[in-house]
Specification:
It is built from no helices and 32 strands. By secondary structure, the chain is mostly beta strands. The model is unreliable at 1-26 (pLDDT under 50).
């Protein structure tokens, strides 16, 4: 739910799930997850062994396609036990009260699996009395089949907390989120039963955490894209920073990596706060190298310039960062006059010096008005981001059974982030959302997709 403060149920979008494959691999076609009639958006994914977990933000969908599409709005989970070849039906994670508080709406799922195989799904609990928001963490001890408990992870009132990101390292759990300029990280050392929260930073005006990873020593790194103003406008508009939290503690240090200009305007009247604004994501490879993919205007001194994706790398545990260069290739085909947008960078590390980068762009738009021709693209580097193995691969595919899908791509990004993880076969997974417009709802639902190399 990043960049949206609140959202009516009829204005929710779908999330698509993807398994991303190494450039040389053979890939299956995408399969739809969620409900036939949607309305599903902003998914998250995690992997342990052959188990793949996909959390979905579900809102009321088109029941003429499937009555189950009208299931109550909530965070749902789908599980595969065979590396994504097939999935069980979606089921709600937690719809009961948490500590005596009930939440009319839920959003922003994140998924993690601890060393014991317990599955955790975090989400925002929205709409409580007075506009109160909480960060909720639900726990499953049976590989996601059911969730027996849920607790509030935030220690303070959280009227507009946003974008929680959950990370597991062994038996320890970390969750990062923000409210305005306040950056919070929570730590649980008892399998999610209790949480300790720290305010780790209060820089800039609007903070957004975008992704998190752990290193072999158990240190936790989060990527942040923090707006310098309440409108996230200007040149620069945002600071891209990485936080490092020492293993087993809440001791946290931030490092500046880059800045980004104001993003372009959304073509619809309602797209939420800075929907196409600055965004980043973080990855770590098997050698411990860190990577930050970050969004920038192709003219870095011009606000609302068509976005591109850049890459930076750290080889010293996040202490210093080197700019590796532009990483997307949105102009490889189509994209007349370089007017298309490359958005929502998502990245995951593999073997030493191997990194997989995905993004959405509308190079296939006809016309390029940013309301058609969107697809998800993947690029692979085996040289630590110094070069790329070839042009990007199109991961999304036309599905005539889904109304948002057209031969040149889907209508509009459904959600403002994707999720990615490495599958046990050695290929990455990625999740994303496809929609008609930003609004969605039963008459124009979004959907969830999944694709696997394995």
């Amino acid at each position: 739910m990043r960049r949206r403060v609140t959202r009516a149920l009829a204005m929710v979008a779908a999330a698509l799930v993807f398994v991303v494959v190494p450039a040389a691999g053979a890939s299956s076609a995408p399969q739809r997850l969620g409900y036939c009639g949607g309305d599903d958006w902003e998914p998250a994914t995690a992997v342990q062994g052959s188990n793949v977990y996909v959390a979905i933000t579900h809102y009321l969908g088109d029941t003429t396609c499937d009555p189950a599409s009208g299931s109550p709005a909530a965070i749902y989970l789908q599980t595969s036990t065979n590396r994504g070849r097939t999935f069980g039906a979606p089921h709600a994670v937690w719809t009961q009260a948490v500590g005596g508080t009930s939440y009319p709406e839920q959003a922003d799922p994140s998924v993690a699996v601890d060393a014991a195989g317990n599955v955790y799904v975090s989400f925002l609990g929205l709409g409580a009395s007075g506009g109160h928001t909480d960060v909720v963490v639900a726990k499953s001890t049976d590989h996601g089949a059911s969730f027996g408990s849920a607790v509030k992870a935030n220690a303070k009132d959280c009227k507009n907390c946003d974008h929680p990101k959950l990370v597991a390292d062994g038996a320890d759990l970390y969750i990062a989120y923000s409210q305005a300029q306040y950056h919070f990280i929570g730590l649980s050392r008892d399998a999610g039963a209790t949480w300790t929260q720290a305010t780790v930073d209060a820089t800039d005006v609007v903070g957004f955490v975008e992704g998190g990873v752990t290193d072999s020593a158990g240190n936790v790194y989060y990527a942040w894209a923090d707006c310098q103003s309440s409108s996230c406008g200007g040149v620069p508009a945002a600071d891209y920073r990485v936080s490092k939290t020492t293993a087993g503690t809440l001791q946290t240090k931030f490092t500046d990596v880059a800045t980004g200009v104001q993003g372009p305007d959304c073509p619809f009247s309602k797209c939420g706060f800075s929907f196409w604004g600055p965004q980043d994501d973080i990855a770590i490879d098997a050698a411990g190298n860190l990577y930050l993919a970050w969004q920038q205007g192709q003219v870095s001194t011009t606000r609302k310039s068509p976005p591109i994706v850049n890459l930076s790398r750290s080889t010293d545990g996040g202490a210093t960062w080197t700019f590796m260069g532009r990483a997307d290739d949105k102009t490889a085909t189509g994209c007349a006059a370089s007017a298309c947008y490359a958005l929502f960078p998502t990245i995951v590390g593999g073997a030493a010096n191997t990194v997989y980068l995905a993004w959405m762009d509308d190079r296939n738009g006809s016309p390029i008005n940013h309301t058609n021709g969107w697809n998800v693209w993947l690029r692979t580097s085996t040289s630590g981001g110094a070069g790329w193995t070839g042009p990007s691969q199109q991961l999304s595919a036309y599905d005539p059974s889904q109304s948002q899908s057209q031969p040149n791509g889907f209508g509009f990004p459904y959600g403002d982030y994707m999720g990615v993880a490495m599958n046990s076969c050695g290929a990455p997974l990625i999740t994303w959302g496809e929609g008609h417009t930003w609004v969605g709802g039963p008459s124009a639902p979004g959907h969830i997709e999944f694709r696997s190399l394995c």
